[in-house]
């Protein structure tokens, strides 16, 4: 640990902000608020990347921070706001599991990451245990959001917040190559998801739990 | 930078990339199909050259016996599927099922998909590997949604979301592997290269590697279609164009599996990590179990064979999870045989459902009477995939049971029972499809019969694949056997 504890404390504080926004996404009931919370999470992530760029002395991370800020913090939320208004789904978030139980599950997932990661003996590695635990919590919360929301747009927001967790881990990993490339490659996925929602008017998610979906298109009745 | 000099590896990767760019800008879908065949043939030639002439490993790309074998397989199935696709997709174009711009997208994406597969197979850097698998997802999503029907869009969306989550989790695992390696190997690209990491993996932080492997297993396991992560697979196979079903089953699943095996080897090099074997065996048995029962209630012919693919991915997981040279040999042989036979079956199924104008099993009956060539090819194909001698699938399944029974007799017995169950389901469905009173073939009646050339092009790949499967079943050439044996011993 070549750096002062202050640098790491601030990094953890920013990481914890990203995590708090992940919880924020789970309790918002209105679509516009969900998107705004997502934008805040992305901005916190941009700050995390910029701070890592400063303490690791890695200028390419400033590029990552800028991409995150412009693309994920501004362009994507703006596109989403426009999209939900276009599709007329800006009112309430449909949940498959109530807000309360979802938050409880979220707390459980964060506890799980802490229990798994904190006992690890990884002193001397490129990342602190706390950063791994924070990033893993954000990833799992994103996954939880994808599972517990019915609407395709909220599902994509969950996916993007999962991605924020990945980036939080990637920028925190000291000297990791290809971070910029990987973040761009991931943005392509996000862009494609938005594209799909817009062009095919996908409102509902389709998965094996959705009964109406099973009835309409399993195409398998004999 | 040896990778930048023109050599077999550069050619193998550059040809499909060039093909994708060219096909994306060229108008006119009739020549595009043949250009697609041409590029695939050239890629196959480059892959064959690569197999005999391995370039030295670089930081980003590397070739060893294992991925060279799969690159040749990918080149071969890619070429024969392109040939089949030229006969198949042109009919969709002629009867206006697909618009010209969709056909252009299809051909460009076909080559782009081949590029991502070959890149994933030859990648040494785990970041590049991840990007290649992501690219394979994106290109196939575009092809699955090609018909723009509601079920096709839904299937593509489901595939896209499930596999995106999968590869998202795989990226987290990738980052964790870098973190485990970075302590020992220092910052930068060497800590992401398989060829440099594996010899030094013993010093990596084992708990970090364990956590990474769980994420990688869930992530790439989704792409390999292992139960319970398989939900996307039947829909994606059923709703896309049939050539895509053939390459999804024959190539993409293999590549996902290959990635898992690379990471398994990395973990095996560290004595303090968890044993990935039992995890793979567990997922594998579950996959075979679920698939064997699901085979019974299928009403859609492409979904039927998609579930059969899940079964065979399960067998691969059991084989590689068991480990040891014999089980690995069986797994490798099974991988090759399943690719060849399953893609051949999809070729037959594609022609049959095009002729019948439906994918419902109830609408396709008595093929041996109404279309003898297709009917009997289907019979041969299903018997081959079900694991009857003299086909190569029998050999590999037999070897797998041979390796498994001395180590875990009850597991071997269970697997044998499940194989018989799946066999019975396939034969049950085959009976209706191939024999009995024939159903009408509206796709053929009325329309003027295709030219002899088109017919030959459409069916030649079927015979090619079947001939290879029989050859491997009766007498595997000594050179091929010793090649596979060498890889099997490496895999540990």
From TrEMBL, chain A:
GO terms for cellular component: plasma membrane. Keywords: Cell membrane, Membrane, Transmembrane, Transmembrane helix. The chain crosses the membrane at residues 6-26, 38-55, 61-84, 96-120, 126-144, 156-176, 182-200. It is a multi-pass membrane protein. It is found in: Cell membrane. The keyword Transmembrane applies. Its main location: membrane. InterPro entries: HyfE-like. PANTHER family: HYDROGENASE-4 COMPONENT E (PTHR38601). This is Hydrogenase 4 membrane subunit. It comes from mine drainage metagenome.
UniProtKB/TrEMBL annotation, chain B:
GO terms for cellular component: plasma membrane. GO terms for biological process: ATP synthesis coupled electron transport. It is a multi-pass membrane protein. Residues 123-415 form the NADH:quinone oxidoreductase/Mrp antiporter transmembrane domain. It holds the Pfam family Proton_antipo_M. InterPro entries: ComplexI-like_HydComp, NADH_UbQ_OxRdtase, ND/Mrp_TM. Its main location: membrane. It is found in: Cell membrane. The chain crosses the membrane at residues 6-26, 33-52, 68-91, 103-121, 127-147, 159-181, 242-260, 280-297, 304-326, 373-391, 411-431, 452-485. GO terms for molecular function: NADH dehydrogenase (ubiquinone) activity; oxidoreductase activity. The keyword Membrane applies. Keywords: Cell membrane, Membrane, Oxidoreductase, Transmembrane, Transmembrane helix. NCBIfam families: PRK06458.1-3, PRK06458.1-5. This is Hydrogenase-4 component B. It comes from mine drainage metagenome. The gene is hyfB_14.
């Amino acid at each position: 640990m070549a750096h002062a504890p202050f640098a790491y404390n601030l990094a953890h504080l920013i990481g914890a902000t990203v995590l708090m926004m992940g919880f924020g996404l789970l309790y918002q009931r209105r679509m516009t608020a969900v998107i705004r919370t997502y934008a805040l999470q992305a901005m916190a992530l941009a700050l995390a990347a910029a701070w890592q760029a400063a303490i690791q002395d890695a200028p390419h991370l400033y590029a990552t921070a800028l991409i995150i800020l412009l693309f994920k913090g501004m362009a994507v939320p703006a596109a989403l706001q426009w999209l939900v208004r276009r599709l007329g789904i800006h009112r309430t978030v449909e949940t498959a599991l109530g807000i309360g139980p979802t938050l409880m599950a979220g707390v459980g997932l964060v506890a799980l990451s802490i229990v798994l990661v904190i006992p690890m003996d990884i002193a001397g590695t490129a990342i602190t245990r706390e950063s791994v635990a924070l990033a893993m919590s954000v990833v799992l919360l994103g996954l939880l959001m994808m599972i517990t929301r019915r609407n395709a747009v909220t599902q994509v927001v969950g996916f993007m917040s999962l991605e924020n967790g990945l980036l939080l881990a990637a920028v925190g990993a000291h000297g990791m190559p290809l971070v910029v490339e990987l973040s761009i490659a991931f943005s392509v996925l996000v862009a494609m998801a938005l594209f799909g929602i817009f062009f095919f008017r996908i409102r509902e998610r389709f998965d094996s739990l959705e009964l109406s979906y099973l009835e309409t298109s399993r195409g398998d009745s004999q | 930078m040896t990778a930048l000099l023109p050599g077999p590896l550069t050619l193998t990767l550059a040809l499909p990339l060039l093909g994708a760019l060219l096909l994306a800008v060229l108008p006119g879908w009739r020549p595009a199909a043949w250009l697609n065949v041409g590029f695939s043939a050239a890629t196959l030639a480059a892959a064959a050259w690569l197999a005999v002439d391995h370039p030295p490993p670089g930081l980003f790309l590397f070739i060893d016996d294992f991925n060279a074998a799969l690159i040749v397989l990918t080149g071969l199935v890619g070429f024969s599927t392109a040939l089949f696709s030229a006969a198949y997709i042109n009919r969709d174009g002629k009867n206006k099922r697909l618009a010209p711009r969709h056909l252009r997208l299809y051909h460009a994406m076909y080559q782009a998909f081949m590029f991502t597969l070959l890149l994933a197979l030859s990648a040494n850097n785990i970041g590049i590997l991840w990007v290649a698998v992501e690219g394979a997802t994106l290109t196939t999503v575009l092809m699955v949604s090609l018909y723009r029907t509601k079920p096709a869009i839904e299937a593509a969306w489901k595939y896209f979301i499930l596999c995106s989550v999968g590869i998202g989790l795989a990226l987290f695992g990738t980052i964790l592997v870098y973190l485990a390696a970075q302590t020992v190997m220092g910052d930068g690209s060497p800590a992401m290269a398989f060829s440099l990491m594996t010899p030094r993996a013993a010093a990596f932080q084992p708990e970090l590697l364990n956590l990474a492997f769980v994420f990688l297993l869930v992530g790439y396991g989704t792409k390999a279609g292992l139960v319970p992560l398989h939900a996307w697979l039947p829909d994606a196979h059923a709703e896309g164009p049939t050539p895509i079903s053939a390459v999804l089953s024959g190539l993409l699943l293999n590549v996902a599996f290959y990635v898992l095996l690379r990471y398994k080897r990395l973990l095996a090099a560290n004595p303090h990590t968890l044993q990935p074997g039992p995890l793979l065996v567990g997922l594998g048995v579950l996959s075979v179990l679920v698939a064997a029962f699901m085979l019974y209630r299928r009403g859609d012919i492409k979904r039927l064979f998609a579930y059969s693919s899940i079964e065979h991915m399960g067998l691969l997981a059991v084989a590689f999870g068991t480990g040891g040279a014999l089980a690995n040999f069986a797994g490798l042989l099974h991988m090759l045989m399943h690719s060849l036979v399953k893609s051949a079956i999809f070729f037959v199924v594609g022609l049959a459902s095009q002729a019948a104008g439906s994918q419902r099993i109830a609408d396709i009956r008595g093929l041996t009477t109404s279309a003898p060539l297709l009917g009997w090819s289907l019979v041969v194909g299903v018997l081959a995939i079900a694991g009857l001698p003299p086909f190569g699938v029998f050999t590999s399944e037999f070897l797998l049971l041979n390796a498994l029974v001395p180590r875990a007799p009850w597991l071997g017995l269970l697997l044998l029972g499940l194989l018989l169950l799946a066999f019975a389901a396939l034969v049950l469905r085959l009976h209706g499809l191939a024999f009995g009173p024939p159903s009408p073939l509206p796709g053929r009646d009325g329309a003027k019969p295709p030219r002899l050339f088109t017919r030959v092009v459409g069916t030649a790949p079927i015979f090619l694949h079947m001939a290879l499967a029989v050859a491997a079943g009766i007498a595997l050439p000594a050179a091929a056997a010793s090649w596979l044996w060498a890889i099997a011993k490496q895999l540990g």
